[in-house]
């Protein structure tokens, strides 16, 4: 009885506690208790914290007219900063790739002594404030730092060059790769590796033919995450980068500089560009990953 | 290919607990042996050691009489079938089977046509000729099992190591694959070592059984010897249902604690001991005790099941022998067919 009343109410009036009026069929498909409430909270949360700021960001540049936008887009310094940001992020993510796979494999398969400490160290970049990372790296690789001095003897300068940026970004990006690959490897039976070994595969063949295909989708998403994070990384980079325009100046730094000059529309234009490119990169990676995992898992449907 | 282990000992990683304790085992060329024992007895560890998957050990491991290092393992021509099959999920069945050939250095690798011909032969052998392009995930347990076997056989091993290969299969498929595996062993002239915890399976398929317990070999013999002369009560219990009767030997006679069990002459010396006997070897002797049958049923497999009550305990006896005792008739139990293990009370 109670159910039938509820049902008729439901069909012809507003949903009881829905925040947004949704197609009835969608709400009615779900029989979970409190579904409209939880769904509403989720929508509110996503809307207020994610979508609204993004809309504000996208709208802001146009308020001062298209001229400023075009000016920013033609600014060679901005373009150079983008070049630096993207090339360094790509380099860092690519360099992290083999490192991350190796680390994840070592941690999962060999469980070396001090396993827990190593794991904690890998997670550290997640936890340390980025400014702390930046200043630490800058001191380490600076002309008088331990590494900086050593490398200077070899005629290499890391600090205040794009190489410094890459090192800072590698530090930030590595945990993304390790943490995405690790669970996949953990679920990958070690017997499969042993079978490959017993069938005469060399270590390289074992990795290339057996392990890599299994971890490739996870590796790709780890790569995508690391790359996206590296594009926007600010705090850990600016101290070591030297911030010379056209050479080691990153795009996020330009945003801050424009803001300090009260050029809000210039700053937001750069921000929107960064956002768009990061989104495109992530979408591309997810697309690749989807195709890859289809090849690995979905083929059974055929 | 013969395998010899001499005082082979292996420790659990990072501890002094012995997984394998002073194993001495010889497997002759062409033999089919089964490693049996309860879970945790070290069967799989022993098999992995023979396969070269545990490089750290004490003692000697000889293949064809030669100590062979860990590194030249592929040359040992060993095929290994894992308990969970360990197939390569992202490869087709055909690619799984040809893996051992695909990874050969170019100068030893057969050309493509040869490889695919070999794969087709193996698919015919495992009776799955139409599944070359299927993925492992699409197969049933029994099919995966056979693919794993075909993959192990593709490199023409002389030694085949099987770790609980029939574990996940239903009884009918189990029996079929078991018979088929035995035929394959004879046809290809393999040396096969099979790990199983199922003694009936082992008795059915293997020439020789190696019974393991707590990392040691308890007895190594063929099925008849194991049945007739088990070395320890454990072996006897492991191989089938066993009844125990505690008692004492006095003047070359075994006097059971249970007064409804009849004494019988023995050769052992005086002292407390236990008689172990298969239920089917127990005989009922009328008018000699106070035991009686509580209930009897006939199982569909042709065995009679009696619940017998003596003054001290209630016994379940399953036997192919029918007795003509009425339910209220009293009798004594004759256990003179039982075994007494010296040193075991």
From TrEMBL, chain B:
One of its GO terms (biological process) is quaternary ammonium group transport. SUPFAM superfamilies: P-loop containing nucleoside triphosphate hydrolases. One of its GO terms (molecular function) is ATP binding. InterPro entries: AAA+_ATPase, ABC_SmlMolc_Importer, ABC_transporter-like_ATP-bd, ABC_transporter-like_CS, P-loop_NTPase. Keywords: ATP-binding, Nucleotide-binding, Transport. Residues 3-239 form the ABC transporter domain. It holds the Pfam family ABC_tran. This is Sulfate ABC transporter ATP-binding protein. It comes from Acetobacter pomorum.
């Amino acid at each position: 009885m109670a159910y039938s009343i509820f049902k008729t109410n439901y069909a012809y009036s507003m949903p009881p506690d829905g925040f947004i009026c949704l197609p009835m069929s969608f709400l009615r498909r779900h029989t979970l208790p409190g579904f409209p409430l939880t769904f509403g909270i989720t929508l509110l949360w996503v809307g207020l914290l994610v979508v609204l700021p993004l809309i504000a960001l996208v709208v802001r540049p146009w308020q001062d007219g298209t001229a400023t936008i075009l000016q920013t887009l033609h600014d060679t310094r901005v373009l150079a900063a983008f070049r630096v940001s993207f090339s360094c992020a790509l380099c860092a993510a690519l360099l992290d790739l083999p490192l991350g796979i190796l680390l994840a494999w070592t941690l999962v398969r060999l469980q070396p002594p001090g396993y827990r400490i190593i794991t904690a160290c890998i997670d550290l970049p997640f936890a340390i404030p980025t400014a702390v990372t930046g200043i630490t790296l800058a001191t380490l690789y600076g002309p008088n730092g331990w590494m900086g001095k050593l490398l200077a003897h070899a005629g290499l300068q890391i600090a205040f060059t794009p190489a410094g940026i890459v090192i800072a970004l590698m530090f930030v990006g590595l945990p993304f790769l390790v943490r995405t690959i690790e669970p996949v490897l953990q679920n990958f039976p070690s017997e499969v590796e042993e079978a490959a070994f017993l069938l005469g595969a060399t270590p390289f063949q074992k990795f290339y033919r057996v392990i890599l295909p299994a971890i490739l989708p996870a590796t790709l998403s780890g790569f995508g995450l690391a790359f996206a994070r590296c594009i926007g990384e600010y705090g850990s980079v600016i101290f070591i980068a030297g911030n010379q325009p056209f050479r080691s100046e990153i795009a996020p730094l330009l945003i801050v500089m424009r803001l300090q000059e009260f050029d809000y529309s210039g700053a937001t234009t750069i921000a929107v560009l960064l956002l768009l490119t990061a989104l495109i990169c992530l979408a591309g990676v997810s697309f690749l990953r989807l195709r890859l995992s289809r090849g690995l898992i979905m083929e059974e449907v055929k | 290919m013969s395998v010899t282990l001499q005082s082979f000992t292996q420790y659990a990683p990072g501890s002094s607990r012995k997984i394998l304790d002073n194993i001495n085992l010889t497997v002759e060329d062409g033999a089919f042996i089964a490693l049996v024992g309860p879970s945790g007895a070290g069967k799989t560890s022993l098999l992995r050691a023979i396969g070269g998957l545990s490089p750290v050990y004490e003692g000697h491991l000889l293949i064809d009489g030669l100590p062979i290092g860990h590194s030249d393992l592929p040359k040992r021509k060993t095929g290994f079938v894992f308990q969970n099959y360990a197939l390569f999920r992202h490869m087709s069945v055909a690619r799984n089977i040809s893996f051992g050939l695909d990874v050969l250095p170019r100068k030893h690798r057969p050309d493509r046509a040869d490889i695919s011909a070999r794969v087709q032969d193996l698919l015919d052998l495992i009776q799955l000729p139409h599944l070359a392009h299927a993925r492992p995930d699409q197969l049933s347990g029994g099919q995966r099992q056979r693919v794993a076997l075909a993959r192990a056989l593709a490199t023409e091993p002389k030694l085949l190591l099987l770790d609980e290969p029939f574990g996940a299969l239903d009884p009918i498929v189990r029996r079929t694959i078991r018979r088929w595996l035995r035929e394959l062993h004879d046809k290809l002239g393999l040396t096969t070592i099979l790990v199983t915890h199922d003694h009936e399976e082992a008795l059915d398929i293997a020439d020789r059984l190696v019974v393991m317990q707590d990392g040691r070999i308890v007895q190594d013999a063929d099925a008849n010897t194991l049945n007739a002369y088990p070395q320890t009560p454990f072996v006897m219990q492991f191989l089938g249902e066993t009844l125990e009767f505690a008692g004492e030997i006095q003047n070359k006679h075994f006097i059971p604690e249970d007064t409804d069990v009849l004494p019988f002459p023995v050769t052992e010396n005086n002292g407390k001991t236990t008689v172990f006997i298969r239920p089917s070897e127990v005989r009922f002797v009328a008018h000699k005790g106070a035991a009686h049958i509580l209930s009897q049923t006939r199982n569909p497999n042709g065995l009679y099941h009696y619940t017998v009550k003596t003054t001290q305990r209630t016994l379940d006896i399953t036997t192919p022998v029918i007795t003509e005792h009425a339910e209220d008739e009293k009798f004594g139990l004759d256990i003179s067919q039982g075994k007494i293990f010296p040193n075991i009370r």
